[in-house]
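Onboarding guide, step 5: your first structure request.
Type a short instruction followed by the sequence, for example:

Predict the 3D structure of this protein.
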Amino acid sequence: MANADNWRAQVAADLIALESEYGKLPIDVSRMLDIEMVLTVMREYFPGEDPTAAWAVLNGQPYPALQQLTAEGQRAIAIARHRLSWISGRDTWERHLRLYKNISEPYPLYRVNDDGQIIEIDNAVTDGRKVVLLDALRTPPARPPRPSAYAPAGRYRFFEGRSPQEVEIGQKVAQGASSPIPILDLDGRASRSPITVSLAELRATAAWMDNTARPGTAAYGQSWSARLRAVDMRRVGAEGLHPEDRLTLDGLLHMIGMVGSGKSSLLTVLTVHLARGGYRVTIVQSDVASLLREEAIFESLREADPNVHAVPMVGRSTRLTHLRRLHDSEALIWGPNLDHDHPAYEMLSTVCPLDGLRRDTHPIKPGQEPCTSLYPLAGEADADDEEDYHEEQPEV
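The system replies with structure tokens like these:
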């Protein structure tokens, strides 16, 4: 995972060292530097704009001045959003901006006037702070490689909460490490041009889905064409609703509509259309059952077009909660039964392969599997300082 905070480590240490001379800062030094990064963004790329509106810039709101940004400015905004994820809304930003205004010289790099003007202070301590801020806005956080260390045969200790547990991995099981799990390596993209898709194109894709889906698959018999013909798109403007026959994807886009108006169908067909065009699409669903229903639809179309390939990503810590919700939703539809043919059950398995190597003990709780926290036991030595190992888990 990228470390978004390294850029300010040295400057923060220098400022803390100066507290003995100029007095203690009334705000955490890391927060102060983060605020100065926001003010640098506003001063460099939005000159004359009120800095209290910075929260809208960082949260992808339709801020008019964003349309005039150069490629360098757009990149700086994207990097700032990545580094400053804690600025979640207006109240958070305005509260921290008020705190910054109360910091006494010579600590602050900027003075923010009541009229919103951002003025750089000449006698601010720590030379080169502005250079560090600008460099941080030009360079995205590095993602250091994290090679896996697969566990060889032996005895290991792991923890369930505070309770120590032990397991012995035999030679046959450990041989699985000779075929490590491949790492998904995707090249990043610094920028993307707006994507415009017409309703006619989406209806053509819907017809392709109807004609391509094989009987018995999740995409078959869904009447995609009929669903898209029933979609009536309107754009919200200053004077009300206006008929619209195309979607432009460029930043944040809100889609609203009554239940059953076709929002989900439009999203599914749009995703297929973009995937067939070579785009990678990320969908965030509210529950795992919906996620895997979508995945089943996409996978059923994969034979006709290999670009329509879905990879569901389900976290470990909330797996049990999702599994209970799936049981509840299936019970409402089919009544209590043991016929677990929904594709989500396979993805939500709570089985840990290490349980098959342990005896006379309770199963490891979902979300507490020691996938990256096995400590080798060497006699009675304390294993806390030993190297962590990654246990390769066979498919379950």
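Each response can be followed by summary notes, for example: The first helix runs from residue 9 to 17.
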